[in-house]
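Chapter summary example.
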Amino acid sequence: MVDVSESVAAVGDVHGCVDPLRKALYRAGYIDERERWIGEDSRLWFLGDLTDRGPDGVGVLDLVMSLQVQAADQGGEVGCLLGNHEAMLLAAHLPEGRKLRILHHDDDDDVHALFRERWIGNGGRSADSDRLTDDHLQWIAALPAMARVGEHLLVHADTVGYLEYGESVEAVNAGIAELLRAPVDVEEIDRLTHLMTKRFAFASDEGTAAREFLRVFGGRQMVHGHSPIPLLLGIEPQNVTGPLVYAGGYAVNLDTGVFLGGPCLVCALPSVPNEAP
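The structure predicted for these 277 residues follows.
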């Protein structure tokens, strides 16, 4: 069981690898052997990209959705951000969602084929598609794009593209939530999926870009996933042992490359820099 009631931890990109996720949550003391929440009032955040690439994206969705309800019942919190793979999955299933309607396009079949081809090309799985329900799609459409947790700013992707939707956490979340509500504008969701696939915005200096991003959105350290650490460092996935802290300590990458064979880690949010951004 998690000992510190005020603890906050995060999980990077799971990508359908539900068995490693279960084991990680069990080892960290958040669930028991029957997948019941035992973290009491602890706070746990997923940084997006729950689905695709791995064997059971819907299984990951079901587990996280269930734990979110269970944790809330005990005074805890399980949060999840919208990742680019959630956005692509949602776009690929818009015509089938029945509760969503597409604007600005004459042929819904062509739109569905376009988005579905993109989703499959990025690791989407037909087995997941067959099991998706309206509940899954509605839950995904309601996910926030950003969150402030104490002095940490949580985002999925290491991109400045979020600025396209506002200059506060509240504005970005409201703008993207509105975009994902019915009726859905094809051009806008296409733009969102492209913006959220960009990366490396904060890796080219000693923290200047990260600090500016934090000045806009608040917080003293940004935490993200999206860019697999083993690919960034050129190491074997199994050699990843924890988060990658970079950009002068103002950015933290939690994508441990689970779908590549890296470890699934439940990471306590790290200490923030002493110097304000």
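To summarize the output: DSSP finds eleven helices and eleven strands in the chain.
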